[in-house]
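re the bet — no i am not wrong, look at it urself. input seq straight from the record:
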Amino acid sequence: MDPQVPLTRDLVFIGGGHAHALVLRRWGMAPLPGARLTVIDPNPKAPYTGMLPGFVAGHYTRDALDIDLVRLARFAGARLVQGRAVGLDPSTRRVHVAGRPDIAYDVLSIDIGITSHMSEVPGFADHAIAAKPLGPFADRWHAFLTKATDGDLPPEVAVIGGGVAGVELALAMHHRLAGLSRTPPRVRVLEAGAPLQGTAAGTRRALERAMRRRGIEMVTGAGVAEVTPGAVCLTDGREIPAALTVGAAGARPWPWLADTGLPLHEGFIKVDDTLRVEGTPEIHAAGDCAHLTHAPRPKAGVYAVRAAPVLYQNLRAALAGHTPRRFRPQRDFLKLVSMGGRQAVADKGGLGVHLPGLWHWKDRIDRRFMDRFRALPEMPAPTLPREAAQGVQAELEGHAVICGGCGAKVGPGALAETLDGLAAPRRADVLSRPGDDAGVLVIGGQRQLLSTDHLRAFSEDPWMMARIAAVHALGDVWAMGAAPQAALLNIVLPRMTERLQRRTLREIMAGAEGVMADAGAEIIGGHTTQGAETTIGVTVTGMAEADPIGLDGARPGDALILTKPLGTGVILAAEMATRADGDTVVAAFGSMARPLAIDAAQLRGAHAMTDVTGFGLAGHLLAICRASGCGAELSLDALPLLPGAARLLAAGERASLHAANAAHVAPHLSGGDDGDPARRAALFDPQTAGGLLAAVAPGQAEAALAGLCAQDLPAVRIGTVTEGGGIVLV
């Protein structure tokens, strides 16, 4: 067996811009052993801005221009930190991320693009939207389209900025509004100076003709004094009516760069001919946020794309101690400017040409670029030895890789058989045996609960993994109606240098401590070791003032309430195989990281309760039925699913524990054959940090659901406890 290559250096990316996206793709095909790669971005997807006008005009869906960073990071073996970088300390080599611990680096690369937010204009932040970054703008544009189509808002738009970007955006907006609104749209472009600077005469003529044909007005000498809810107020006293105001006035650097101490040119990071920041060789920058001191160029995505191969080589060189390459950007490039409909004008070298078919040429170029991230190269499957013991091939079929989280648990059948062989408690101060969510002990006349759990990492982000592991372990205490008291952490780290161990442990402790502090519990110790992969275990104790809520109190007629949607198992399994959508994965992480303290408080009077984890909803409900001597009737249609889970289940995606869960419950399950197959499959999906499943008296169920709803918790009634045994699906 090959020895595990130790992790020795941290490479951190701030931003998921075009250059970084291309580097991630290359990294996935040829990573540098020993380097740990981290990507910090507030969004699960990064938009390709070259297709923005086509999206605004309605030629593309939002999905068509999104680079899925979650999927790309998995392919590259990188951890994606869902957070916004708000600062940087080069002296300590740390990136400040809002809402979580700093991220330490040895080598750093910045590719955060630009913004068109006009913070200096009064009212802009409250009543306008910047065209960049695209994510917030796309949401605002969609909402405006809906209201304009319904007649709730007039189709009046003001675009601040009369350069190519502003005019291109205005043409796209007019095209879209003209096809949706019953009222003719009114679009105005506001420019303080000369419009369409830096373009060829032919390009200007073509764009001006297109604007005149559509009745788009170019308002010149338009210095902006203020933006109000329904107008843009100019410095000369004019008011331009606008139900939507969009900022597209040039390229603006992100303000937080000014506080980093890095060398800047007009707010942009100064880099040399190797893309290293001047005077700080461990930091690199590319894309629109960088200023090429050796070859100044305008802000355009083409330079980021061209810089990507050099950036990839130079980051490897910085990590391995090799000599970097020079980046030689081209002097000029072809600009294909959209004109609203499926038309475009070509601009290069002082010439502007408007010909039929140019838009389709641009469309092919853009789609070809995006195809690099749609169809990621298939990585070769691990090869088996030529000779292996009987059953190896069958065991690996369908699940060559074991899932992370609760999908990696031992099957319920094997576990139940083992636990059934244990003797009953012999000590008077031990009130329970394995089977309940937590053990119950009597200490000094008080009832103390004790439980333990651990998760095989399904994310490379140790802070997020620690938060989810803490919530997951505390679920056993909350499910029995107890108050969390204390915790021990058991941490396994892959082989890495002591410096990286410190960094990783700091993030893990911060993640777990935040959850425990909010729950009123203290971390009192634990154990660490190195192993094959990251694993985080948490042992918890809790105190119960009254008799703990067990599995054995359900009564016929009780309402069955579930407080979190299902689907984490299939989503994590699909994500490991790079087949899950980034938004779907982020929603699942958010659900898993949500504590259950409020859920437990609202369900305090439940007759029976458990947290839904590795054995799936059906497995945990069966445990309640067996312990209580009852049956259950479940409504498949009522089962709540996480976004994207139904699609993945319908496509045949399964967690590695799914089959064992289904086999365990099958003899006790009936009905539902004509129901939704995906929802039926969700019954057996192993959950990590799932919700509470409670049997509540009929007279209390409505009040409990109302209380949960008032807290914005997605709890639903999914069925009823019945006489007899087994689970019936309806």
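see?? The mean pLDDT is 92. told u. also The first strand starts at residue 9 and ends at 14. so pay up
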